[in-house]
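Problem statement: downstream parser choked on a complex file, so we are re-checking the raw output for the pyridoxal-5'-phosphate run. The parser issue turned out to be on our end (a line-ending mismatch), but while we're here, posting the original submission so the record is complete.
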Amino acid sequence: MHAGQEPDPSTGAIMTPVYMTSTYVQSAPAQHKGFDYSRTTNPTRVALERNLAALEGARHGLAFSSGMGAINTVLNLLKSGDHIMAGNDLYGGTYRIIKTLYEKLGIASTFIDTTNIANIENAIRKETKLILFETPTNPLLRLTDLSAASAVAKRHGILTCCDNTFATPALQRPLELGCDMVAHSTTKYLGGHSDVVGGAILCNDTELYTKLKHYQNAVGATPGPMDCFLVLRGTKTLHLRMDRHVENARRIAQFLDQHPKVERVYYPGLKHHPQFELAKTQMRGPGGIVSFELKGGVEEGKSFASHTQLFALAESLGGVESLIDHPVSMTHGSIPREERLKAGLQDGLLRLSVGVEHGDDLIRDLERAFASLR
Ligand SMILES: *Cc1c(COP(=O)(O)O)cnc(C)c1O
């Protein structure tokens, strides 16, 4: 709540001022108070960067205008001839930028199931420079053992970055588990109110930070001060919101798990989740996203998703309000059906971003949608 923020010294204002300025007056050429141009640095952004660093237990933080802006900056560390490895159910935008932009620049990539550490070991080449993890993944909520995976990478001198958007530092702190970098889409839980798009990178190594900061300024995908203020306002209640997201998600996962019209529930807090034990040691809670497969197919999935009221039909996740997504026709629609099924994305799969509403209301809403199915 408090990290990176002090009452404004000139007025005592308890909230960080929104420094709407592009430039800063200098008393003599190159004589300034640490701020010369707002792409390079801005006091509201500095407060956010310190705040996010504290949340992840990091020495350094960098804020971006989107999660993709942050991930792109991590990828800027690579050069032609390098090889990158990443999870095979990565966020679609991350997969897209690696395939359509970085491949063209001569950076090879391999996408593997990182939930099995042996796969990582086997896919390492001498050109491998970076491994990108997402845990839990979207939408099947598979986990990667970050301690084991980063130990393998370290042994081979490979940098690691964990996209911690789904868990948030309230539930999982990848730097403490050995990762070199953490990336975030602050658009999701950190912002938490579906009113801002943003991103961040956190790390401990000062040399690494210096490089990333150089790319941040050189590329310019930096957030405006109002956006920084909104994320900063979000993080003040992150711990409270995550507690409620987890409480509601647990209850809903259990409700769905014994429902006759449900084929299968994916939630790391359920005992039958293949990584239930890992979730308990690696995470402080199983998170606020629950995925489940309806009996039936595309039609049932679409019908269910159109019959909830509190669960709004929308892409994105992590806000206070509950959302429902039918991945096959929405967020993951661009993946060919064959490939999709191979990856375990069934036609009747639904993803819930469980909000912080009253749990009874959410269950009632789901019951209504079940009743709409024939
Ligand atoms: C949304 C998301 C991103 C991309 O972030 P934007 O803020 O939309 O650019 C990256 N990774 C994960 C896991 C996400 O959910």
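For whoever reads this later: DSSP finds twelve helices and twelve strands in the chain.
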